[in-house]
Amino acid sequence: MKELNINGAVVQAYPLTAAQRIHFYTVSACQRHELLNIGTGFYLEYSDVDFDTLRECIYDGYDKFECMRLRFSVQEDGSLMQYLIPKEDREIKFVDFSEWKEEDAHAEMERWTCIPFQWDNGPMNEIVMIRLPGGYVGLYMKVHHMTLDSSGITQFYSYVLQLYCSKKFEGTEAPKPPMSYLKQLLLDLKYEDNSPQLQKDTEYWHKWLEAPEPLYTPFSERNRLLELREQMGKKKLRAAFPTGNIEAAIKVYDLEKESTDEIMKFCTENKVPVASLLLLGLRTVFSHFSDNRTDISVKNAVARRGTLLEQRSGGTRIHFWPLRTDIKPKTSFLDALRIVQAKENELLRHANYDPILYMGEVSAHYNAPQGASYECTTLTYQPLSIANMKNVSLPEINYKSKWYSNGVAMQHVYVTVMHRPTDNGMSVHFEYQKNEVSVDELEKLYYYLCRAIFRGIEDPTRTIGEILDWM
């Protein structure tokens, strides 16, 4: 912690957390700052919106959510310090797209999403009130990933929506205010100061370095590792990295509500997390594309929101950890799911460790190329959606949401599964490097993912080997 003089005002500044350092490391490697932009839209089929009141609610959200007032200051050595400004009074614009084609309106907002923020002492978000064709109105929001993750974004939208409803509709309660980002930040920094829990986590992750070196598994028939082995002349190479062509797009596949309900029912009855089921589905697909190999590693995004303060303080809290399991063909689907669940629980208990530090330790231990990975894909599951948070006093209003591509990605494929605001069915979002990954590969990945999951749900006593044979 240190004091900074920002435009004549002295502010208390703090170092980045481990979750923020992940993002800073990534964007420093590619030098494309729009990589950390998250662009979203949330729209209601309700043309009679009072935009003056909505604007007031947004400003109130700025006041209550400290992370929305976060700024970064670039230091002489190139590092960043973070601090809060006391009040956000920037103009909140209104843009009327009602005379546009809807696809053109979304294309324009995607263009906004590709515009990077100015790091040094500049605002890290932008909110625009929107009117779309067809009677939909709502908000477009672009945030910097070092200030908010998907959970925080959903909380902010929900807070503004519920606050608006409390002002305009009788009998609607005002939302509970969020908790302090600064308070959680200080706890995170305290953990990093050689705390007893840090020592336990260090021991856990260092034990994993005693295991044999993992092996990269592909997401399609085209094996990136085999390509690299030939290009680099290293027949024993076991880790892979993208080509460097990071131009990206997003492809979305919607799972029917009935099929989503099957998944949710199965997970509830068997007391397993949905994320564990998705991870098992993915690792089964990767096994299929690697001659039924049993030792598979998937990168898992861990939200780290176990306490009430963590859940409601906003910020970015995601750490990315390899979930490595060795599941034999004779293992039943349900037993395999328990194995994945147990491993995921282990990760959750030790997820506060610095992933960037661990990446360096892995690379040094196995003498792997810098930036290489054993996981072809990262999975994020977002159980929280506006659909299950919307105010019960407005049941007839239709909702829709949109995630806009920022145009770049550092992985070949990044898988995000979230729930639609319209019916709470699942949507599977593939962010992919569009010059390196074909839509045909994505379609096959989605097809096999669903096939693996639903073959297992139909009969949990089926073995993983049987499911692989049917793929």
Largest sheet: 6 strands, mixed
CATH superfamily of the largest domain: Nonribosomal peptide synthetase, condensation domain
Helix content: 25-40%
Q: Extract low-pLDDT stretches.
A: 388-393
N-to-C span: 54 Å
Share of residues in strands: 15-25%
What coarse outline follows from CA principal-axis ratios?
globular
Q: Which structural class should the secondary elements be placed in? A: alpha+beta
Helix/strand order, N-terminal first: EEHEHEEEHEEHHHHEHHEHEHHEEEEHH
Assign the CATH architecture of the largest domain.
Answer: 2-Layer Sandwich
| Mean pLDDT level | 93
Strand order of the largest sheet: 9-15-14-12-10-11
How many separate structural domains? 2
Reported by name, the CATH topology of the largest domain is Chloramphenicol Acetyltransferase
DSSP, total strands: 15
Radius of gyration: 23 Å
Describe this structure in words.
The strands form 3 sheets. A 6-stranded mixed beta sheet has the order 9-15-14-12-10-11. Strands 6-7-8-3-13 form a 5-stranded mixed beta sheet. It has a 4-stranded antiparallel beta sheet with strand order 1-2-5-4, with no helix packed on it. It has helices at residues 18-30, 51-64, 102-113, 150-168, 181-192, 196-208, 224-232, 257-270, 274-288, 308-312, 333-349, 355-366, 439-458, 464-470, and strands at residues 2-6, 9-15, 37-45, 70-74, 80-84, 93-96, 125-131, 136-144, 248-254, 295-302, 319-326, 377-382, 399-404, 413-419, 426-433. The protein is built from 14 helices and 15 strands. 39% of the residues lie in helices and 21% in strands. The chain folds into 2 domains: 11-184, Chloramphenicol Acetyltransferase, CATH 3.30.559; 227-470, Nonribosomal peptide synthetase, condensation domain (Chloramphenicol Acetyltransferase). Mean pLDDT is 93; it is low at 388-393. Strand 1 (2-6) and strand 2 form a beta hairpin. The protein is of the alpha+beta class and 471 residues long. The longest helix has 20 residues, at 439-458.
